[in-house]
Amino acid sequence: MPNGQWNGEVARCDNKDNYCPDPGIPVNGMKNSSHYEMGSKIHFQCRPGYAFMGSDVIECLPNRTWSEKGMKCIGPYEFDNNDRVSEILKVKVEGIARQQIRELKECHLASHSIWLQRTHESTPSKLILDLNYPKRFILYFVFDTSHNIRERDFRRTVEFAKAIIKKVGVSEYGARIGALTFGSNAEIAFLPTNYKRTEDVLRALDEIKYT
Fold first, then answer.
1. For a 10 Å CB count at each end of the chain, is N or C smaller?
2. pLDDT at residue 23 above 80?
3. How confident is the model at residue 96 (pLDDT cuts 50, 70, 90)?
4. What disulfide bonds does the UniProt entry report for this chain (predicted)?
5. Residues near 120 by Cβ (< 8 Å), separated by ≥ 6?
6. Helix residue ranges per DSSP H, 41-127
């Protein structure tokens, strides 16, 4: 393709006896297992010099699909393409959203099971962000921590984000904030489930490092 990427998906040879289909191996990557039964987990990693895009661990689900897809190993110069950067960040955020939905369902099922058993056990303590509150909304900030911008300009973007957060406010049942950094690859600085107070979010932003 003109953007230096292959079109379509990675070719794979599948066996009809597999519970989940062969997920394939990303170009310039490797995987640690060839077991595709329900509940099996596959770990991926990239060759030296490449950054992973997507989830590096996938699980074979009861519906015979994998928990994630679209794993890729990205070379150091592929991040200069703006469309590519947008795609990488989109995959990262969508992965977080899918994980939150799965964990929220698991929490509700576990809580219902405990109620049916009429025990005095506490409900699951996983950090789940319930989206059903009417005033709930989530903001994600993305910070460029590469050397494409000067550290002074990076600090200005952090201060700008902090000014917005002070106006919005963060609370247990209101707004929540997440942050990602983008240098050689996309990384999660913190999730919306991590902090329930404005001052904690501001402190976490100050701790983001410029590389």
1. N
2. yes
3. low
4. 46-73
5. none
6. 82-117
Q: What is the pTM of this model?
A: 0.45
Residues 115-149: tens digit of each pLDDT: 455 444 444 444 445 555 556 778 888 888 877 77
CATH 2.10.70.10 domain range(s) in the chain: 13-79
What pairing do the DSSP bridges indicate for beta strands 29-31 and 41-46? Answer: antiparallel
| Best CA proximity match to 74, nearest among 91, 92, 51, 90 | 51
Cβ neighbours of 210 (radius 10 Å): 18
Q: Parallel, antiparallel, or unpaired for β 138-144 and 176-182?
A: parallel
First to last CA, the chain: 31
CA atoms 198, 204, 207, 209: torsion sign: negative
Q: Which residues contact 55 (CB under 8 A, 6 or more apart)?
A: 67, 68, 71, 95
- How confident is residue 106, by pLDDT bands cut at 50, 70 and 90? low
On whether the CB atoms of residues 97 and 178 are closer than 8 A, the answer is no
Q: Where are the alpha helices (DSSP H) in 20-78?
A: none
